[in-house]
Design goal:
This protein is of the alpha/beta class. It is built from 15 helices and 14 strands. Helix 8 links the parallel strand 7 and strand 8. Helix 2 crosses helix 7 and helix 7 crosses helix 8. The longest helix has 17 residues. The termini are far apart.
Length: about 400
């Protein structure tokens, strides 16, 4: 059974490996709340996952260690297990979904683990890991539904309450539920008045739906840029801990996640992966009640695939009104582009790209379409620019 003593023991064991991740004040996320970030993206391996993995492996018997360990993961648990195995001189086999970011796969390999890529998502990798466990008698290290793993993750709760004993709210990402189970258990055991909210991606809301139905559900499919929490089915232990200790679990959209990643980069100089940004997204977009409260958002990881980072930033810019695309139908005559440029310049819109199209099949033969991508300040700025153009007689079309 999970006990507070076990969480404190995990905290003692982990002192030999963890980086200190002191909370960071984040005033720009919400002006009506006192918001702090717990930056586990700065943790060793770039994620909180090393906590549970390392503590679990530290508690294995010599016989279990000798057999070697196996794990399944979308990436961050894999790195935690691989690092812990390397530090303890143990063989590690890691099953990852074949869609896992290459950066996470290679980082796991760099810790000396043997990699097994499995077609599908996390749950398919889990099934393969169980198969290999039986075949080779490995010791299986579950990514979330294990009391020692949960105890390791719970050390974050101890650190939060030690650093900020007057916390009102803690917001935590949720995939399989191991992180929030440990954090909520530790916090509620020490201060039952602290509110703990979980956050899932709307495209992978397995815990949300399970709690709504009051039974563990397995989703048919999941899809989200937050690959670290893309889990079809919560664990038995984690489901029960969430029922008992968590005050609510909400969802955020892909656009909201992208906006949170952008906010963390621009205003707080932190790189977060999708899963790492969902707690910030929930606070930014008023998904949890935090007005007037002292709040800690857990930034659970920073191992984002750089190949998709530019796309995420672009989506975040669109969501926050920082970018707009105009399609303006023009009469094809001299001076039109000059007049459009004057309006944009006068209002401070920054042109990123421009494309001029003639002979559109659904426009007059003398017309053309001018496509302009702009950098803007916010939605009000976009509205101002569009109004100025239409007031000057330009026709903005939806294309």
């Amino acid at each position: 059974m999970l006990t507070l003593d076990k969480v404190y023991k995990a905290s003692h064991v982990l002192k030999e490996v963890l980086h200190t991740t002191s909370c960071i004040r984040a005033p720009k996320i919400r002006t009506d709340a006192e918001v702090y970030l717990k930056p586990e993206n700065l943790q060793i391996t770039g994620s909180f996952k090393v906590r549970g993995a390392y503590y679990k492996i530290s508690q294995l018997t010599e016989e279990e260690k000798a057999r070697g360990v196996i794990a399944c993961s979308a990436g961050n648990h894999a790195q935690g297990v691989a690092l812990a195995a390397q530090r303890n001189g143990i063989k590690a086999v890691i099953c990852l979904p074949d869609g896992a970011p290459i950066s996470k796969v290679e980082a796991t390999r760099s810790y000396g683990a043997e990699i097994c890529l499995v077609p599908g998502v996390y749950d398919d990798a889990y099934a393969k890991a169980l198969e290999l466990t039986k075949e080779h008698n490995y010791t299986f290290i579950h990514p979330f539904d294990d009391e020692n793993v949960i105890a390791g993750q719970g050390t974050i709760g101890l650190e939060l309450i030690d650093e900020m004993p007057d916390l009102d709210v803690v917001v935590v990402p949720v995939g399989g539920g191991g992180l929030i189970s440990g954090v909520a258990f530790a916090l509620k055991s020490l201060n039952p008045n602290i509110k703990v909210y979980g956050v899932q991606a709307s495209g992978a809301a397995s815990m949300v739906k399970s709690l709504e139905e009051d039974k563990i559900l397995c989703l048919d499919e999941v899809g989200t840029i937050a690959d670290g929490i893309k889990v079809k089915e919560p664990g038995e232990h984690t489901f029960n801990y969430c029922k008992q200790y968590v005050d609510g679990v909400v969802t955020v959209t892909e656009d909201e996640i992208s906006s949170a990643i952008l906010e963390l980069i621009e205003d707080h100089k932190l790189i977060a992966e999708g899963a790492g940004a969902v707690a910030v997204a929930a606070v930014m977009f008023n998904k949890v009640p935090v007005k007037g409260k002292k709040v800690a958002c857990l930034v659970s990881g920073g191992n984002i695939d750089v190949t998709i980072l530019s796309r995420v930033i672009k989506r975040g810019l669109l969501k926050s009104g920082r970018s707009d695309t105009l399609a303006i139908q023009l009469e094809d005559k001299p001076g039109q582009l000059k007049d459009v440029s004057r309006i944009l310049a006068d209002l401070g819109g920054n042109v990123v790209s421009i494309h001029h199209e003639r002979a559109s099949e659904d426009s007059d033969i003398t017309d053309c379409i001018l496509r302009i991508v702009l950098e803007t300040r916010n939605y009000e700025h976009i509205k101002q620019i569009r109004k100025a153009l239409t007031d000057e007689g330009f026709n903005i079309v939806n294309r």
